[in-house]
Amino acid sequence: MVIPPRSHPAPHSEPVAVQYCATFLKPEMLHIYRQITGLRRWTPAVICQKREQEAAFPFPIHEGQRLVRIPKPATHALRRFWQKQICGHPVQIYHSEVRRLVGEIARLNGRVLHIYFGHIAVHLLPLLRRPPVPIVVSFHGADVLVDLEKPAYRRATEEMLRLATLVLVRSQSLAEGITRLGCLPEKIRLQRTGIPLDGFPFIERPFPADGQWRFLQACRLIPKKGIATTLRAFAAFCKVYPQSQLTLAGEGPLREELGALAGKLGVAENVTFPGFLSQEALRQELARSHAFLHPSEVGTDGNQEGVPNAMLEAMATGLPALATWHGGIPEAVDDGVSGYLVPERDHEALGAALLKLAASADTYAALSRAASAAAAERFDQARQIAVLEACYDEAVTLHLAQHPHGTGAIV
Asked: Which residues contact 109 (CB under 8 A, 6 or more apart)?
């Protein structure tokens, strides 16, 4: 069981929490941006290797915030080839990079370092060995089991978990996975994805008595999202409700393959691929949809979900979720209450769930209200940011207890 964060007073007014993001930020990382910029008692500063999507993710946005870019060294490609291909080890930073990071953390007046994500923390392992400040590491799903069949990667991950001050997870299922890797349960904290509920208000949707159902799945077009399962289930649904529409919003390597599958299944005219949607366009799509699909599945490399952010936003607006018994999804969706859960890769079960959803206006209305209530109760952004800041407070206290005379980090 994950231990809730212990509440401690902040060491002084508006201390600085340095956020390490290798890329600040990729398009699918809106939830990270919301979390960083939503801090209240702590002031965020950012260290990154490269900056992307500056218009979508402006930073700093308040006085006192700073962003520092530390690009990869010119020898990075050689280092990657030597460490990963020749030695079979995860790529880790040089001692000179540790000194640079320690210096920047000091110049930013950082009191805690928050690393996104677990595999990036492995890359920074030499820094964790001599931490200048308490280090908090976030795991969000894809960064838990990948490459752990390789002994060197597993050993490095185990060491990183041992050295981190606190480990944050988005779901209880991730906590269980990290515990199996040897992380002490007492240093794991459950800090869920936060949804700004005022941006995704509940919408009362009329039951489509004419059979013109509209379904939505918004995600990267990659295998673990189960989009092929969505298409096959939707094709079965269209045999009963031929005027239905499915929107698959997102971009990714499976785009052409999924389009071909829609044609093979005979539903190409019922399926739309609008690409990556802006927040405003996504809100509009949510408003005209009746349900949200997300039948995630474990990837061949062990990659799995925490709790999908787009699904939470959809639920907040009142869209029942049709998803799978996978990762942290059952912690958000109560089967038969706020949506329906089916086994992974089972398109027949998902198709049956779609038909069940469409069978009763009363059932649909109840599922819709319950989905919105579940999102508000478990994933409110303000509440989750308060949890995060309590974790920062606690990390400072733990670090001082563990290193009463300093850490000896080289500046």
From this structure: 16
What is the Cα–Cα distance from 337 to 317, expressed in whole angstroms? Answer: 16
Q: Is 69 helix (H, G, I), strand (E, B) or coil?
A: strand
pLDDT in tens, 238-268: 999 999 999 999 999 999 999 999 999 999 9
Question: How far apart are the C-alpha atoms of 190 and 171, rounded to whole Å?
Answer: 6
What span, in angstroms and rounded, lies between the C-alpha atoms of 228 and 258? 7
Which candidate, 362, 309, 351, 307, places its Cα nearest to that of 331? Answer: 307
**Distance between CA atoms of 372 and 361, rounded to whole angstroms?**
17
The answer to whether residues 249 and 217 touch, using CB atoms and an 8 Å cutoff, is yes
Angle at 224 between CA 221 and CA 226, to 5 degrees: 75
Distances (CA, A) of 362 to 290, 315, 355, 369: 14, 18, 14, 11
Q: Report the DSSP beta bridge partners of residue 44.
A: 17
CA angle, corner 86, sides to 82 and 92, nearest 5?
A: 45
Please write the tens of the pLDDT for every residue from 184-239: 999 999 999 899 999 999 999 999 999 999 999 999 999 999 999 999 999 999 99
Residue keyed to tokens 């700073």:
66
The DSSP output letter for 195 is: B
Please say whether the beta carbons of 249 and 222 come within 8 A: no
CA distance linking residue 202 with residue 309, whole number of Å:
17
84, with CB counted inside 10 A (0-12, 13-18, 19+), is middle
Q: How many residues does the chain have?
A: 411
| Count of helices and strands (H, E) across the chain | 14, 13
Q: Where are the beta strands (DSSP E) in 164-318?
A: 166-169, 188-190, 214-218, 245-249, 271-275, 291-294
For the whole model, what pTM was predicted?
Answer: 0.88
Q: Which residue has the tokens 């989750």?
A: 384
Q: Residue 267 to residues 45, 50, 210, 235, 347: CA-CA distances in angstroms?
A: 48, 41, 19, 6, 15
Beta-carbon contacts of residue 250 (< 8 Å; ≥ 6 apart)? 217, 218, 219, 220, 221, 275, 276, 277
Q: Are 285 and 291 in contact (CB under 8 A)?
A: no
278 torsion bin: left (phi>0), alpha (psi -120 to 50), beta (else) = beta
Amino acid at residue number 291: A
